[in-house]
Amino acid sequence: MGELSPLFAPERVAVVGATERPGSVGRALVENLADFDGDVVPVNPNYDEVCGLPAVDGVGESGADLAVVAVPAAAVLDVVREAGEAGIRNVVVVSAGFGEAGGEGAARERDLVALAEEYDLNVVGPNCLGIVSTPVGLNATFAPRSAPAGSVSFLSQSGAFVTAVLDWAADHGVGFKDVVSLGNKAVLDESDFVAAWGDDEGTDVVVGYLESVEDGRRFVDVAREVTPETPVVVVKSGRTEAGAQAASSHTGAMAGRDRAYEAGLREAGVIRADTVQDLFDAARVLAGQPVPESDGVAVVTNAGGPGVMATDAVGEEPLSLAEFGPDTLDRLRDRLPEGANVYNPVDVIGDADNERMRAAVDAVLADDAVGSAVVIAAPTATLDFADLAVDVADLQARHGLPVTTCLMGGERARAADDALDAAGIPNYFDPARAVGSLGTLARYREIRERERPSPTTYDVDREAARAVLERARERGRTRLGVEAMPLLDAYGIPTPAGEVVESPVDALEVAEGIDGDVVMKIVSPDILHKSDIGGVKVGVPQEEVYDAFEDLVARARNYQPDATILGVQVQERVEMESGVETIAGTNRDPQFGPLVLFGLGGVFVEVMEDTAVRLAPLAESEALSMLDGIKASPLLSGARGREPVDRAAVAETLGRLSQLVTDFPAILELDVNPLVARPDGVRAVDLRLTVDPDNL
Amino acid sequence: MGELSPLFAPERVAVVGATERPGSVGRALVENLADFDGDVVPVNPNYDEVCGLPAVDGVGESGADLAVVAVPAAAVLDVVREAGEAGIRNVVVVSAGFGEAGGEGAARERDLVALAEEYDLNVVGPNCLGIVSTPVGLNATFAPRSAPAGSVSFLSQSGAFVTAVLDWAADHGVGFKDVVSLGNKAVLDESDFVAAWGDDEGTDVVVGYLESVEDGRRFVDVAREVTPETPVVVVKSGRTEAGAQAASSHTGAMAGRDRAYEAGLREAGVIRADTVQDLFDAARVLAGQPVPESDGVAVVTNAGGPGVMATDAVGEEPLSLAEFGPDTLDRLRDRLPEGANVYNPVDVIGDADNERMRAAVDAVLADDAVGSAVVIAAPTATLDFADLAVDVADLQARHGLPVTTCLMGGERARAADDALDAAGIPNYFDPARAVGSLGTLARYREIRERERPSPTTYDVDREAARAVLERARERGRTRLGVEAMPLLDAYGIPTPAGEVVESPVDALEVAEGIDGDVVMKIVSPDILHKSDIGGVKVGVPQEEVYDAFEDLVARARNYQPDATILGVQVQERVEMESGVETIAGTNRDPQFGPLVLFGLGGVFVEVMEDTAVRLAPLAESEALSMLDGIKASPLLSGARGREPVDRAAVAETLGRLSQLVTDFPAILELDVNPLVARPDGVRAVDLRLTVDPDNL
After folding, report:
1. Closest chain B CA to residue A143
2. Which of B430, B637, B643 should we substitute to test contact with A (largest number of A Cβ atoms within 10 Å)?
3. Which residues of A touch B311 (CB under 8 A)?
4. pTM, full prediction
5. How far apart are CA A321 and CA A314, in angstroms?
6. Within A120-215, where are the H helices?
7. In sequence order, what are the beta bridge partners of A536?
8. How far is B407 from chain A (nearest CA, A)?
9. Which residues, numbered 627 to 686 in chain A, qualify as contacts with chain B under a Cβ-Cβ cut-off of 8 Å?
10. Strand pairing partners for A611?
11. By Cβ atoms counted within 10 A, which residue in A433, A563, B69, B333 is the most buried?
C-alpha cells in the first residue's frame, strides 16, 4: 500500500487529549479504540489512566506509531512537533480551529503543513472525524459506530457523512477496509489515498465524497494509474452550480467548473455517481461481482411485468439484451414448460419451482453471448427465496459472470439476504436498480479497457506563436481577435488566406492575391458584435475593396468614436455550403488546467449546450472521440445525405489547439468560431482569445 | 366512488372453486378472506364445507354480491352466467385460459365480454390475482400477504407485481386502500378504476403499473377529470422501445409509440415514474404530505456535506432554494451559534441539539418564501433522532407545509420511523431522494394548477379540404406532396403564392403573378429526394421559367423514366434569412389518436430529436406551450440577437393542423416541412402526407 500503509495498520496508537469526561471527543476516541488489535496509549498529563488504560504525559513518551490528536487547536502544533521528534510518522488531527476558522486558524494550518514537511509526516485533517481500518480493528474516530469489514475503502470530505455511512452500512451490504475523513486536507488529500488504496491488496473499490479536488492534475495522474486495476467512484457535489459562473467567451461559459470536473474525472477513469444511493450501489456491485466481458445481459424472471421493467432498464444503461445461441434455446426449451418464454427476457412463468429457475439461470449463464445476468422473482407459493439465493450464488461462482438479483418482497426477500450478501450479489426490490448495477460494471469495463495514449505532439512553430503573443503584450492588449490569426498559422491550423491591413491600398493588394470575392471585417478589440454595426462585408469583389475599407472604418468610427481600430481583415471567402460550422475552444480551469471544448457552431453550443470537453493536451484518438461526444455528431459523419467532413482534420485541429494552450499558459481562453469543417479539410475562420501577459 | 364502489365493499363474497386442496388457488382465496368483515361463501358442489365455512353448490345460491371465480377456464362462462342470473353484479375472474392463451381462449374472452354486457357486470380479469380493499378487510387474491391499510389505491397489469408489492409495502411506509390486478382487462380496465378512485373518499393517490392502455382517448378524458383532485402516478413499461418502429414520415419516426404515451399521460395529468422506486416514493409523499404553494425549498441540516448534496438535488428538480426574509434570518441568527449558516441551506452545525434543530425548522417553515422543506441530520452525540422525528412531525402539522427528511443512519434512523410514518413524512438515507419527493409534489402542483382549456376552433373551409382529399382518392393516390397545398389553404395555414402546373406556358403565367424570382420543383410521388436529382431550382427569374419547366421534367424523366409526374410547382421564394425553419407534423396513434409534433427543421428533429408532441385537438395555449417544449425554443424567442418569430402564428398553425387531422381521420400522417417562422408570420413551404382513402 506504499507509504500510507502504516497509517492504516499501526501497532500502537496514542490518543492525545484522551479524557474520561463524558461526551468528549477524547473519551469517544479511547472508547472506540477498544477493539483495536494493537496497543492504545492515552496521552494526558492530568491522568494516570484513562478508561482503564495507563496514560502518559506526552506523545513523545507513547512509543506509538500513530498519534490521534484531539487537543485544543492552540496546543496541536506542539503535539505534532513532539510526535515528529519522537519519530511518529502518522498523525491524525481531529481538532478543529484551522483553515476552516479563517485568520489565526489559517496561519496555524500553514504551520502544520510546514511541520509535516519538516518531519516528513503523514497528517490526516485537521478538523476531521478520524480514520478506520477494519483488518486491525482500528476505529480512530469519534463516530458512535465503526465500519463493518469489507473491501471498500472510503474517503469523505464531510465527517458527518462518514458518521452517517458507518451507521447505515452494516444493514446495507457494504463493508469497508479503510475509511478516512479528509477534514481540511492540509497535507494528505484525495490523491494520496487513491494512490495508496490503488496499491492495497485489501481494497477492491475506492468510493469517495468530494466537494473539491485539491490538485486536479495530480488527481488525474494518480487516478489514471489506479483505475485500470481498482475502480474509483465518487460523488462530487456542486454539480448543479455549473453555468452559474460568468465568463467572457463561449468556451468559458460552456466549460463551467462542473464541466471541468466532468472532464477531469472522465480522464481519471473515475466513475461519477450523482447520489448517495448510486455511490453505494456502485460500491456493492464493484466489490462483490466480477467485471463482465461483454454488454449482453440475460434476464431470467418468473413474472412478466418485472421482466419488462428490467428490459426497459437495460435500454437506459450501456447494456443490451443478449441474444441466446441455439444450444441455450434448446436447453431452455427442454427445461421450461409450454407458455414459458425461452428468448430473452426468459420467463419461467409463475408456477416455476426452484429447480426450474435454477435450470434457466444455469443455461443462460453458459451462453457465450451473455456477459452478465439479472435474476428476478416475484413471491410465489412454489419458489423459496432462500434456496433460490443459494442457487444463484452457486451458479454465479461456477460461471464466473456478474449477477444481480431482484427478489421482490419484504420479509420474504430478507430470507435471501444472507446467501446473497455472502456471495457479494446485490439484491434490490426495483428491477431498475438491479440492472443499473450491471450498468455500473459495464461502465467500469469501458474504463478498464480504455486505451491511455500519450498526447499527440505536432510539428509547430512555437517561436512564431510566441512572437504574436509578445506583440500583444507590447501593445498592452489582453483580448485579441483575428489580428492574432498568425498564432493558428504557427500551430499548423489551416486558416483562410488573408491579412489584417491598415490602409485601403494594402487591402486591395491582399485582395488581389486572393482568388474570387473576399470577406472584409473591421478589427477592433472594442467592437464585439461586428455584424450588428455593419462591420462585416461578405463577397466583396476586387473593384470594391478600396471603398469597402473606408466604409468599414467609417462605420466603426461612427458607432464608437473612441474604439481602437486595428485595421480591416481581408480574407478569402470560405465556401460554407458543403461545410459544417463548428467551434473549437480552450480555457483554463483552476484545478484541472487547460481544457479543450468542441461543438457545432452557433445554436448548438449556445442553445443546445451540445459540447464535448476534455483535458489538454490531447491524444489524437481522444480528440476524435470528442467528435463522437456530441449529440449532433451524425452531422459530421454525413447525416442527411451530406458528404462526411474530414473528421481527422477536425481532430488534428483540436490536438494542435490543445498543444498551443499547453505550451502557452498565457493563453487563458481561446475560441476558434467558426471552425468550418468540410469534406476536404478545415478552415479556422475567426478567432478570439484572452491572454495573461504576465504569464508569457 | 360510483358504480364500482360495491366491488370493493361487498357484504358477502362467494369463492367459486373453493377447495381445501393444499397449494390450490381456491384454498388460498378462502384462507385470505379470513379477515373479511362480511360473509364468505365457498361454492363447490363437492364439499359441504371448506375451511370450516358452509359451502353451497352453485354461485346462484350464494346470496353474495361479489363472486370470485377460480374454476377451470371451460367452466367460467357458466359460472358467470349463473352469477348474472342471480343478480350478482361484481365478478372477479381469477382463472386463466382466456385471451392470453390465444385461439379458443380468445373466443372464450369474447363470450365473457358479451355476458358482462348482457348482465351489466363489473368483471375484473380474467387471468388476474384478484382484488384487495383494506377498509373492509377484503383480500380476494391468492397472494400470500394482504396490503397494509392506507390511502393509496393501486392497479397493476402484472399480478406478480402486486404480490411483490404487497409483500414489500408493509415495511416501507406505503399503505393501500384498494388494489386491483387487472389481468386481461376484458371488461374493466385502468380507466374504470382511475374514474372510480377519483370519486373515492378513501383514496388519496392512485398508482399503477401498466404495459398498455386499452383506450387511450378514454383514459385521457377520465384521468383529466380525476388528476386535479387525486394524483395518479404510473410506471408505463416499454419505454425504451421508442423509435424502434419504422414509419414513413419524420413525424411518424419521431412520434414513436412511447412519445404517444408520453403525450397522452401528460395530457391526462398523470405523473410518469420510470422505476418502481420512483413510483412508490411518489406514492408515499403524495399520500402523506400536502401540496406546496410554491417551489421554494428550505434545507435545514446539521452537516454541511449532506446539505450540499441536497442543494444539488434541488437543482435537478422543478424546485429552487428559497430566499429567506429578514425576519427569518433574524430568528435564525438569534437561535443559532456563531459558525452556523443562517442562509439557505441552513447549517445548524454538528453540535446542534434537538432544541436548536427544532428552532431552525420552525423558523424556516414560517417564512413566506418557503413552500416545502427538507430536514437533514447526520448522527451526532447531541441529537436524538426519535425526538427530532416527533418535532418535525409536529412542526409539519402546525405549519401545514410539506416536509421530507433525511435522517441519515441505520438502526439509529429507524428510531425515527414510527413518528415519521405516522405523520406521513417520507424519510430517506439519500438526500437526493428526500428532495426528489418534494420535486414530485411540485410536479403535481403544476398538474393541479394547470388550465384545461377546450380545443381552439378556427374558421376553416372543410369542404375545400375534403375536395382535395377526394381528388386524391379518385386518382388512387395515398401519398401526396405539394400538389395538396390547397389543403393548407383551406385550413387557413399561410402558404407561399404558387401552383402546381402541367405546362411551361402555365408555369410562366403563374410566375408572372408572383413578385420576384420563383422556386420551381418537380412534383412526383415517386421522387422523394428531389434536390438530389436536380429537381429543385431556386431563384428562377421570369425569363427562365419556361425553359426551367422543361429542364425539370427532362431531369425527372431521365432519372426515373416510369415516375408519375404530376407537374412542376412554381412558388414564391420565401425569404429565409430572418426566419427559422420549423417542422409541424401530425400522425395517428392506435391508442391516443391524432398527435401533433413540433420541432425546428432538419437536424433538430432528425439528429437532436428535439421535438414536442401533444394530443390533437389543441387549445391555442397548449400549442404555444409546445414552442416552449423544445430545447431550441430560445431560437424562436430571439436568441443570438435575432428578432423573435411570430410565436402566435406558429401556435395557430399547429392548432389549425390539429383541427385538420381531427376533422379528417383519413389523414394518417402529415408533415409541413419546412414551416418557415418569421417575425411577420409563418409560411408552410412544403408538405407531405399519407391518406387512407377508405376513411374519407
Report:
1. B380
2. B430
3. 237, 240
4. 0.92
5. 7
6. 159-169, 190-198
7. A521
8. 9
9. 631-632, 634-635, 639-641
10. A599
11. B69
**Which tens digits make up the pLDDT trace of B58-76?**
999 999 999 999 999 999 9
Whether residues A164 and B430 touch (CB distance < 8 A) is answered with no
Q: Residue B255 has what pLDDT? A: 38
Q: Are B254 and B237 in contact (CB under 8 A)?
A: no
With a CB cutoff of 8 Å and minimum separation 6, the contacts of A455 are: A616, A617, A618, A619, A655, A658, A659, A662
- The amino acid at A505: V
B163 and A602 within 8 Å at the Cβ level: the answer is no
Return the ∠ at Cα B332 (arms to B330 and B335), rounded to 5°.
110
CA distances from A221 to A187, A194, A286, A450 (A): 18, 11, 22, 15
Q: Which amino acid is at B337?
A: P
Buried b / exposed e across B22-55, counting CB within 10 Å, b at 16+? eebbbbbbbbbbeebebbbbbbbeebeebbebeb
Instruction: Say if A448 is an interface residue toward chain B (CB within 8 Å).
Output: no
For B533-591, what is each residue's pLDDT tens digit? 888 888 899 999 999 999 999 998 888 888 888 899 999 988 877 788 999 999 999 88
Residue type, position B597, single letter: L
Answer yes or no: do A309 and B157 touch at CB < 8 A.
no
Amino acid at A487: L
In degrees to the nearest 10, what's the CA dihedral of B96, B99, B101, B107? 110
Instruction: Compute φ and ψ for B611, nearest 5 degrees.
Output: -135, 160
Distance CA A524, CA A61 (A): 72
Model confidence at B488: pLDDT above 90: yes
User: Which residues have C-beta within 8 Å of that of residue A628, sequence separation ≥ 6?
Assistant: none
**Cα distance between the two ends of chain B:** 41
Interface of A with B in 297-326 (CB under 8 A): 302-306, 308-309, 311-316
Q: Residue A238: list chain B partners with CB under 8 A.
A: 308, 312
Report yes or no: A427 and A413 within 8 Å, Cβ to Cβ.
yes
Q: Considering only CB atoms, which chain B residues are within 8 Å of A411?
A: 167, 170-171
ipTM: 0.90
CB A101 within 8 A of CB A149: no
Residue A209: closest CA among A152, A138, A134 = A152
Which amino acid belongs to residue B219? F
| Residue of B276, B413, B602 with shortest CB distance to A429 | B276
Report CB contact under 8 Å: B381, A311.
no
Tell me the pLDDT tens digit for each residue of B595-607: 999 998 877 777 7
pLDDT of residue B241: 47
pLDDT at A2: 45
Among B211, B238, B316, select the one facing A240 at the smallest CB separation: B316
Q: Measuring CA to CA, which residue among A266, A98, A272, A93 is closest to residue A188?
A: A93
Q: Average per-residue pLDDT in chain B?
A: 91
Is there a cis peptide before residue A679, judged by omega within 30 degrees of 0?
no
Mean pLDDT by 10-residue block, N- to C-terminus, for chain A (696 residues)?
82 96 92 96 94 95 96 96 96 94 91 96 96 97 89 95 90 92 95 97 96 91 96 87 31 57 94 95 97 96 92 92 96 93 93 96 98 96 94 98 95 88 95 97 96 92 95 87 92 93 92 91 84 86 92 90 89 84 92 93 77 94 94 85 90 97 95 93 93 85
Place of cell 467512484: A233
Contact list in A for residue B309 (CB cut-off 8 A) is: 235, 237, 275-276
Identify the pLDDT of residue A640: 67
Which residues of A are less than 8 Å from B634 in CB distance?
Answer: 607
Chain A residues within 8 A of B413 when measuring between CB atoms: 167-168
Residue in chain A closest to B412 (alpha carbons) equals A167
Q: B309-324 burial, b for 16+ CB within 10 Å, e for fewer?
A: bbbbbbbebebbbbeb
